[in-house]
Amino acid sequence: MFRSKRAGLVRRLWRSRVLPDGGGSGSGGGEAEAATVGCCLFKERPLDGASCPDGRSRLAPLEQELKSVTYSLLKRLKERSLDSLLEAVESRGGLPSACVLVSRAELEVRLGGQAAPPQLLLGKLFRWPDLQCPAELKPLCECRSFGLPDGPTVCCNPYHFSRLCGSESPPPPYSRLSPKDEQKPLNLSNSTLSYTETEATNSPTSSPETFLVDASMLPDATKHSHWCNVAYWEHRTRVGRLYTVYEQSVSIFYDLPQGNGFCLGQLNLENRNETVQRTRNKIGYGILLSKEADGVWAYNRSEHPIFVNSPTLDIPSCRTLIVHKVMPGYSIKAFDYEKSCLLKHAPDLDYPDGPYDPNSVRISFAKGWGPCYSRQFITSCPCWLEILLNTNNR
């Protein structure tokens, strides 16, 4: 029997759903086929392993309801929207994808007796099985829903959203400190001027898409229009030039087939040790930094945690360094402009890992640091970023 393209797209999307334990069946990740997995929202399995006469397992009632609601929503989307949604899901957000706009009123559905807005339903289906409320989601700045929370339409592309990183206690410490990590901290307050950088822009693998910019070579009128500079470090060595950011957002990643931004995979360094290389391989899709009205947000696009610290994330008048762990798919307000103004009037504090620019953010890939980690100082982390903010351009 002839089957339409629309029906095929819907089936592929259903097979790409994720499981509560992080598994899935999408072609983007190479997981098991959908026939061998259960529902992403409910843990119920076919009762007692019973099967229908034709050999198919009977779905638990809630799973059957989920499938029915999902198919109903997807079948009402335009074919172009289904294509965009499938591209986003199968690439796990690695490829740019268009908004999937739906009417709030027309596509409001109910699941388990509760309202399930489209962005909540698809967010649970394809990314976060434990997602409970739309308020946990934050549109990314590249999405048409950004800044329009009460509009008549909403984007339900799950990769146009991040999940808000809630407040949490610092993670438990490791069993003991490593002697090699008990080193004197490096003063990073003037890191953009004081330390020799390893240039990578002359590498034969460099390309215009990496957009490595030397701020000192820009015209005076342009120098004042950027909102931040990004420095990339490996332990105590800065690698590459400063990357100057003018657009509202910037992607910082290891290697992608498409897209623009700061490609860390293009930066070469002689005698790079194995620990650094292993960590670099975990950067993947990296992070998205965006300048917004209330501050600077960091969205973790990789498959591993990132660790974030800034003066506005620390507890006021507290000498304990606080490093926030941000899981994949989550975002955090890495720098709060309003709080930074209050900090200008606070007494200077000596931070445990040395002084640094009060208008900066430090982000480590895959490895944490601070009082609760074996790595006491940011300079002990294999791969990390220093985001130097231009507070004159807010």
Give a description of the structure:
By secondary structure, this protein is an alpha+beta fold. Helix content is 18%, strand content 20%. Strand 7 and strand 8 form a beta hairpin. Helix 1 packs across helix 2 and helix 1 packs parallel to helix 3. About 23% of the residues have low confidence.
Brief overview, please?
The protein has helices at about 5-15, 60-75, 80-90, 120-125, 190-195, 220-225, 275-280, 335-345; strands at about 100-105, 110, 115, 135-140, 155, 160-165, 230-235, 235-245, 250-255, 260-265, 285-290, 295-300, 305-310, 325, 330-335, 360-365, 385-390. It has about 400 residues and is α+β, with helices and mostly antiparallel strands. The strands form four sheets. Strands 4-6-15-12-11-9-10 form a seven-stranded mixed sheet.
How many distinct beta strands? 17
Helices and strands, in N-to-C order?
HHHEEEHEEEHHEEEEHEEEEEHEE
Mean pLDDT: 75
Largest sheet: 7 strands, mixed
Q: Assign an overall shape.
A: globular
Decide which structural class fits the backbone. alpha+beta
Question: Strand percentage, roughly?
Answer: 15-25%
Rg (C-alpha, Å): 23 Å
Low-confidence stretches: 25-58, 167-223
Q: Give the helix tally.
A: 8
Biggest sheet strand line-up:
4-6-15-12-11-9-10
Q: Which helices and strands, and how do they pair?
A:
Blueprint: H1 5-15, H2 61-75, H3 79-90, E1 101-103, E2 109-111, E3 114-116, H4 118-126, E4 137-139, E5 153-155, E6 161-164, H5 191-194, H6 220-223, E7 228-234, E8 237-245, E9 249-253, E10 262-263, H7 274-280, E11 287-292, E12 295-300, E13 306-309, E14 324-326, E15 330-336, H8 337-343, E16 360-365, E17 384-389
Parallel strand pairs: 6-15, 9-10
Antiparallel strand pairs: 1-5, 2-3, 4-6, 7-8, 7-17, 9-11, 11-12, 12-15, 13-14, 13-16, 16-17
Helix pairs in contact: 1-2, 1-3
